[in-house]
Design brief:
About 40% of the residues lie in helices and about 20% in strands. It is built from 9 helices and 10 strands. Helix 4 crosses helix 8. The protein starts with 6 loop residues before the first strand and ends with a helix.
């Protein structure tokens, strides 16, 4: 007797098609290739289109307009409201952005139908865990690890428990309006993380740490974009914090895929600490490096 196929709804946010013109096609192809037994539908929310716009892109792929006030988070709210009670007809809801494959394509290769079925038995949300070496504080919450908002899977009950996905709106007292000192003295963000955000978005690459691929100079003209991007980052962090507060753990897709493929049944519903999960990536890298070295030593002529 065959098991019923998993039903997955993707809420894919894009802002026009200039930067990632084939995002929804690429995502649908990934599901067909890696999860062929999944019954997959997609709602594309384009926050460059007006709220109220609606059309079909293809069979099983609907397009609507969405709010860009809080980037993907306000757009997801539009998608959730549009779906309504039908949201609970799905086994899993997939939050994604058009940049889903931009920063972690190798991690995405690990996900398959087995991973999704395993997720159903876990009290957690699946994605790629990012982290910082040192913990920091936002809104009085100590944070160190989070799920990238470009690709997250959870069950509809988890998603509904969050309410609006916008945690940090435009009226949140964070910014001064002054590019020379963009954060308020009483901003609910630790000073160290304020400096980290500044360096990440506007740094010149000097000193320690990396900078954003689209870094820019902070000027009166770019200040509105800086504030919007910083709020989006804070909303990403707060999405994880709110999931944790509701009793849902972070599940790293690489860790879960390795667990499923190993056929592990011991404590199968136990989700280890995020540090344990991301350490599995280092083991994978070491294994690949060792295999490469063995191949090179065998096939490359010695000098």
């Amino acid at each position: 007797m065959h098991a019923q196929p998993l039903r997955v709804l993707t809420l894919l946010v894009r802002h026009g098609t200039e930067k990632y013109p084939t995002a929804w096609q690429d995502l649908r192809a990934m599901f067909a290739r890696q999860m062929p037994d999944v019954e997959h539908r997609m709602l594309v929310i384009d926050n460059s289109l007006p709220v109220g716009h609606g059309s079909d892109l293809d069979r099983g792929v609907e397009l609507i307009g969405g709010s860009n006030e809080d980037w993907e988070f306000s757009a997801w709210d539009c998608g959730i409201n549009h779906t309504g009670a039908k949201l609970h007809q799905y086994d899993l809801v997939h939050l994604a952005t058009s940049a889903f494959a931009a920063s972690a394509p190798d991690h995405l290769k690990s996900i398959d139908g087995g991973s999704l079925r395993s997720l159903l038995g876990l009290q957690g949300a699946l994605g790629c865990i990012d982290s910082r070496r040192e913990a920091f504080s936002i809104f009085g919450i100590r944070s160190q690890a989070w799920l990238r908002s470009s690709f997250i899977l959870m069950n509809p009950r988890q998603l509904s428990s969050l309410g609006s996905l916008v945690s940090v709106g435009r009226d949140t007292p964070i910014f001064t309006g002054n590019p020379r000192q963009p954060f308020r003295d009483d901003a609910p963000i630790s000073r160290a993380y304020q400096q980290s955000l500044l360096h990440w978005l506007t740094g010149d690459g000097a000193g320690e740490g990396v900078i954003w691929h689209s870094r820019f100079d902070l000027t009166p003209e770019t200040l509105p974009f800086f504030e919007s991007k910083a709020r989006a980052i804070l909303n990403e962090l707060m999405l994880t914090n709110r999931l944790l507060a509701n009793g849902y753990a972070l599940v790293d897709m690489t860790w879960l895929a390795q667990k499923v493929r190993a056929g592990s049944t011991e404590s199968e519903n136990v989700i280890p600490d995020w540090r344990v999960q991301i350490s599995s990536r280092a083991r994978v890298r070491r294994t690949l490096i060792q295999k490469l070295r063995r191949w090179l030593s065998k096939h490359m002529p010695r000098q």
